[in-house]
Amino acid sequence: MAKRHFVGVSLTSQIRRVQELLLARTGADEFYETIRLLVAKAFHERSRATAPLTFERAHILLTENSAEVMRFVEGVPSFSAPPDLVNECLRVLDPVKLNDIKFEALDAAFEEMTSRHYKSDKGQFFTPRHVIELCIDVLRPGKTDTVCDPACGSGAFLKAAYDYIGDSRARRLYGFEISPRASKIASLMSFLGCGDSLKIHTVDSLRVAGGTLFDGQAASIEHALADDRLAKAGFDVIATNPPFAGDVSTSEYVSNYEVANLSKTRVERDVLFIERCYQLLKPGGRMAIVLPDNKVSASKFAGLREWMIRKFEVVGVVSLHGYTFRPYTSQKASIVFARKRTGMEAGNDHMVNFYRSDKAGKTSSGEIVLADGSIDHDLDEIAQDFKREWVL
Ligand SMILES: C[S@@+](CC[C@H](N)C(=O)[O-])C[C@H]1O[C@@H](n2cnc3c(N)ncnc32)[C@H](O)[C@@H]1O
Predict the structure, then answer these.
(1) Nearest C-alpha to atom 13 of ligand 1 is from which residue?
(2) Overall pTM surpassing 0.85 (yes/no)
(3) Mean pLDDT of the chain
(4) Where in the chain is the domain with CATH 3.40.50.150?
């Protein structure tokens, strides 16, 4: 029986309660205030103190570690909410032990915190964790691989890679994210769940180096990696779910992206991300990218598929169930698994494996469907079959 997924809910409900308290009783930004509470709690647990955490101690911890805290919040390191409210929130969080918490629970809590600020019309939504685990399971990142997600959100693909590699010395996981809030959450995920080993950068990943660093726009990935010898050579593995929504003017990207020439006036962002992944991979590097279904099936994108086949060995496509991304989007999606060709290869001279998922683990309204206490999906079975076909 393939492994399935436990659904952690308790931290989520406590975070929800804390956010309700903060929203009801203070004008403070409940998102960053909740992060302050969690970070103070993490420092408190790490100091092995046994007494319950109170405002006074939490305030000292946040100010003593202000440089560290400012990696996760905006504004000031310590609380804006009054002491009695902070104490009430700390009491709600008291039963949680962050040091022992499981990824699913942490991640579900981050989803709760972020989704209020995420906008699905901007392509910002969470990838179900069983989809992420399928990608990582099939890509099989190794201890010496550099792994990247250029649209990393809360860092869940990277966290799954960190867990898969299973070696605390793994220090080769890179996340890039345009939204400062999401990127703070990814840094927090790294701090709480990945031994602080994720390298998270707030950048526009579609911006290719060439613009000046000080032109007022977000820096590029190339700028962020300027001093990183390991990553500059290109990544061994990319796992990503880029934004589906929103297209951009072709003219803006035409000089840096071949695929922009395939469209007349507008080009979809996920199309640009495919080429960005190509640029970021090493020759021979492998990729899993979640794409709207039309990229693998619509005649309109035949030219894009030809481009992909010239540039990549497309190894397999997993067609996801139509409910997979509900309630955020009803758009059907597929995962494309591919290997970047080395300069010597040409043409598509191999079989592409196609898989279809028939169990989303969700209802049409996006509610989780459980079987024996775990999410009822079929992606573990698909991963097993796929790995038999794709020998790395
Ligand atoms: C569909 S979400 C996936 C997030 C994450 N991988 C997950 O599964 O939870 C896409 C993410 O890409 C980010 N994004 C959109 N455009 C971007 C860009 N140009 N550069 C970097 N990140 C971008 C969004 O803010 C969002 O967090």
Answers:
(1) 151
(2) yes
(3) 89
(4) 120-389
Q: What share of the chain is helix, strand, coil (3-state, %, to 5)?
A: 45, 15, 40
Minimum CA distance residue for ligand 1 atom 15: 243
Please state, in angstroms and rounded to a whole number, the distance separating the CA atoms of residues 388 and 392.
10
Looking at the domain covering 120-389, what would its CATH class be?
alpha beta
Helix (H, G, I), strand (E, B) or coil at 76: coil
Instruction: Quote the CA–CA distance of 44 and 80 in Å, as a whole number.
Output: 19
Return the best residue to mutate from 124, 130, 270 for the ligand 1 pocket (most ligand atoms within 8 A of CB): 124
pLDDT tens column, 108-141 = 888 878 776 666 666 667 899 999 999 999 999 9
Beta carbon of 205 within 6 Å of any ligand 1 atom: yes
Whole-angstrom Cα Rg for the chain: 21
Asked if 248 contacts 301 with a C-beta cutoff of 8 angstroms, the reply is no
Task: Answer yes or no: is pLDDT of 176 > 60.
Answer: yes
Distance 273 CA to ligand 1 centre (A): 10
